Amino acid sequence: MGDYTDIRTGRHCVFMLHAHLVFITKFRHPVFTGTHLTRLEETMRSVCADLETELAEFNGEATHVHLLVNFPPKIALSKLVNRLKGVSSHRTRQEFPQLSKWTPTCLAANRLYSPRYAVPRIRTITPPPTAATFTHQPSWQ
């Protein structure tokens, strides 16, 4: 059925939550190069580690980045997105000041990404019940 190696446990739960996130640059300007994407991936992995989440996959193009994040239920998806976009934008603009010059509007607004984000898929998988679950049911007679 599925691969259950990503199953994580909390104090009161067992979970496997994956979100596919897409972040788009402001006005869809093609600003990212291979160097930028490599550094963005490192930054995103660092942020995910701080939040006890896992960046499973990362990919990007000149106008947007795709992330597949495995996150615990205690982290709100909106908070995760806010932190990922904020920290990566700040660090990237600090390390690559030429990114701030690609459009005066974004320079004035001090933003790298569009304020919107997309979550095309959230995947949750629960393992099938085992036979032991059914054999140890109490008798209702």
Automatic annotation (TrEMBL):
Classification via SUPFAM superfamilies: Transposase IS200-like (SSF143422)
Span of domain Transposase IS200-like: 14-138
A Pfam family this chain is assigned to: Y1_Tnp
InterPro entries: Transposase_17, Transposase_17_sf
Protein name per Swiss-Prot or TrEMBL: IS200/IS605 family transposase
